[in-house]
C-alpha cells in the first residue's frame, strides 16, 4: 500500500521565507566578512568610507516607496559598517566625501514648513545614526560636491562650507595617537592651496596620508594639486568620487601619470596592495588609491570599504578593498521569493479549510446531537 505524503504548504511557506531572510540579511554579510583580511595587533588601522551619499527626499519617490528605499539604503550602509567595526579595532575612520545626497535641496524644504537648517539637520542625524561620531579615536571628514555644492550647476558657497564644517569638524592635520602617522584632508572646492603652507615641516620618521574627495592628480586641478602635494609632502593619497576603485602612480612635480596600466579594482583576482611609503623621501613618484563607493545606490556592481594597514616600525603600508555583498541581488531574490511564499500560504489556507473531518470527530458530533 502506497502511503500518501501530506505536504503542509503553510509550513513550507514559512521555511522558504525564513531561509531567504536568513541568507539575505545575515549569511551574505557573513560571507563577505569571512573573506576580509586578518590584521596584526601592532598595526595601525584606518577605515576609508567613500561616497556613502545617503539618499535624499526630492529625487526619491514622494511616497511610502521613497521611505522604504531610503530606509533600505541607510540600513545597508549601517550593516556593512557594523560588520567592519566588528572585524577591526580602528585607530582612525576617514570619510572621503559625498556624505550626503541632494545637498543643494537642503535649501529646498521637505514640506514647505521646515527651515533649511532643520532639513540639513535631518540628513546629519541620519548620517550619524549610520556612522556614530565616536566610532574611532580619530574621525576625519572630507567634503564632496554633494556636500557643499559643485555638482552640475550647483555653486559652492561659503554658507554651505561653513555648515558642513559645523556638523563635520575638519582639521588640517590629525595625528593617530601613539603613532608617527598624520592624516591631512584636502578639498579643491573649498580650500586654497595657500592654506597648506601653514603645515609644519615633515619630520624624518613621519608618515603623512593625504585624503580627498577628488583625485589630486588630474590635470584639471594641476595647480592646486602640485601646491598641496608640495606643502603636505604626503607618502600616499586616498581619494574617491568616481565610485569605482583604482590605483595610479604620478610624478610629484608634474602630476603626470606614470602608471603603465590603469585597472579598476574588481573582486575577481583582487589582492592586497602594498604601497611604497618606505622608499626614498626624495623620490619623485607618489601613489594614489581611489576607493570604491560603499553604497549600492551609486549604480556600480561592486562596492567596498577601504582598509589601510600601517606598520610604523617597518614603514609597510598595505591597502585592502573590503568587498561588500550585492544588495540588488538580494532584493531581486526577495522579489522572486515573495510571490512564491504568498502562493504557498494561500494554498495552505485553502487546504486547511477543505480538509475533511476525521471519522471519529464526525461520529462524536453526530452522537452529541442525538444526546
Q: How many separate structural domains?
A: 1
What is the correct CATH architecture? 4-Layer Sandwich
What is CATH's topology name? Purple Acid Phosphatase, chain A, domain 2
Q: Number of DSSP helices? A: 8
By oligomeric state, this entry counts as single chain
What's the CATH class, please?
A: Alpha Beta
Strand and helix order? HEHEHEHHEEEHEEEEEEHH
From the spread of the alpha carbons, the general shape counts as elongated
What share of the residues lie within helices?
25-40%
How large is the share of residues in beta strands? 15-25%
Low-pLDDT residue intervals, each spanning 5 or more residues = 107-115, 278-282
Q: Taking strands numbered 1, 2, ... along the chain, how are they ordered across the largest sheet?
A: 3-2-1-11-12-9
Average predicted confidence as pLDDT? 83
- Helix/strand structural class: alpha/beta
- Radius of gyration based on Cα positions: 27 Å
Largest sheet data: 6 strands, mixed
Number of E strands = 12
The separation of the N and C termini measures: 39 Å
Protein name: Calcineurin-like phosphoesterase domain-containing protein
Keywords: Membrane, Transmembrane, Transmembrane helix
InterPro entries: Metallo-depent_PP-like (IPR029052), PGAP5/Cdc1/Ted1 (IPR033308)
Transmembrane segments: 12-30, 331-348
